[in-house]
Design brief:
The strands form 5 sheets. A 5-stranded mixed beta sheet has the order 10-13-14-15-16. Strands 6-1-11-12 form a 4-stranded mixed beta sheet, with helices on one face. It has helices at about 1-5, 15-35, 95-105, 110-135, 140-160, 230-240, 290-315, 335-345, and strands spanning about 40-45, 50-55, 70-75, 80-85, 165-170, 170-180, 195-200, 210-215, 225, 245-250, 255-260, 265, 270-275, 275-285, 320-325, 345. The protein is an alpha+beta fold.
Length: about 350
């Protein structure tokens, strides 16, 4: 702007305009920074995952199948008459054990080259079990052909049992860590007959997900929806705790943290900033804390916080930490400092 004011015909008020513009710019930047939390842009993905299957014998209890009648259903185009016709097979179905194996290797975790011996062992056991239970021995090839996918699924489910299956998962990898991204917007709509409430009002737990809450002063958005009373109570704590400078309920796409073999994206409940730290916060029912999905999400969050801290420490920013808080620990009388002291993960 300063360069433009000095070009061409001189402006008698150029110096005053420049001072005013600089002051306005500084004010805008200052106000903008008051309403954001500096969140690094990071795509956090899991590395290659490999599966190892142990050698075992199948439980053949439910491998009891009989051949189905082969029929062709004919529908007349003009008269709309449905006719059922008996179909006769050529009698050639292929090798039964190989048919079962061909179905098994369609599962993404099963690599034939690494598990050939086990697959032949299990498919042969399944074939023998069906052969032992079938009433008409001559229909065995047809039966295997008809139920090959079902047989393979039952074998696969046993292969995935914890005692038969080991998952080797490489470390999380951050494709890149870049300077801070914008705060993604929310777009809430209140339900008819429910509407908006101030976050300080008392609301029955069942009503919380149906309302849009307003009145926040430290939040990065003007209004939020919450999935539970626990989340609403935590927003009250964050608003009233003097140690909290700013907080955010992240919108979709604010974070790109993936889990479950990169098939699912983790979106934390809150981000909270204090004078020296930024916290990623998740609240969970106490009986869910040991669930596998919670453990996987926690691993992703801890890796994100580690990478974010490494980045911010080089750029004058704040360290990141993760809080996993049981819902029983949250109420309007607790302090955020207390929650950090008891539930910070490192």
């Amino acid at each position: 702007m300063e360069e433009n004011l000095t070009k061409g015909q001189l402006n008698l008020f150029a110096e005053d305009i420049l001072k005013e513009a600089v002051g306005l710019y500084d004010t805008i930047i200052s106000e903008y920074k008051k309403n954001i939390i500096e969140i690094p842009r990071m795509d956090l993905v899991q590395g290659d995952v490999t599966a190892e299957f142990k050698f075992f014998d199948i439980d053949a209890t439910y491998l009891n199948y009989q051949a189905l009648d082969q029929e062709i259903i004919r529908l007349g185009l003009k008269d709309k008459i449905v006719e059922t016709l008996k179909a006769k097979s050529s009698g050639s179905y292929g090798h039964p054990v190989k048919m079962i194996i061909s179905e098994l290797i369609d599962y993404p975790e099963i690599d034939y080259d690494n598990n050939a011996e086990l697959l032949h062992h299990l498919a042969t056991q399944a074939f023998n079990a069906v052969a032992e239970n079938i009433e008409k021995k001559e229909e065995l090839p047809q039966t295997i052909f008809q139920f090959k996918a079902t047989i393979a699924e039952k074998i696969y489910q046993q292969m995935k049992l914890p005692e038969n299956f080991i998952l080797h998962q490489s470390e999380y990898k951050a494709k890149s860590v870049l300077p801070f991204q914008k705060i993604e917007p929310w777009n809430f709509s209140a339900l008819i007959n429910f509407g908006y409430k101030d976050y300080r009002e008392s609301v029955p737990p069942a009503m919380v997900p149906k309302l849009v809450f307003r009145g926040f002063e430290k939040a990065c958005h003007f209004e939020y929806k919450f999935d539970s009373k626990t989340e609403l109570d935590l927003s009250f704590v964050l608003e009233t705790d003097a140690n909290v400078l700013k907080w955010l309920r992240p919108a979709p796409n604010q974070f790109r943290m993936y889990w479950d073999w990169n098939s699912k994206k983790y979106e934390p409940d809150f981000v909270v900033e204090t004078s020296d730290t930024i916290y990623m916060v998740e609240t969970k029912a106490e009986n869910e804390l040991k669930n596998d999905d919670v453990i996987q999400k926690t691993a992703a969050a801890l890796k994100y916080c580690k990478n974010a801290t490494e980045f911010t420490s080089k750029n004058g920013g704040k360290s990141w930490h993760y809080l996993l808080i049981p819902h029983t620990a949250v109420n309007k009388t607790v302090s955020f400092k207390f929650l950090v002291a008891n539930y910070r993960n490192d």
